[in-house]
Amino acid sequence: MLAAPCQGLIRTETGRTLSYHPESPAYRPSMNGFISYAHADFAMFEHVRRGLAPVARAFGIDFWHDQNLHTGQDWHPEIQAAIARADVIVALVSYESLYSPYISDHELPAMQARSKASGTPILPVVLNQCLWEYQFGGTQLAPTFGGKLLPVADWKPQRNGYHRACQQTADAITRRYGPPPKGTP
Question: Nearest to residue 61, comparing CAs of 25, 116, 106, 16?
Answer without folding.
Answer: 16
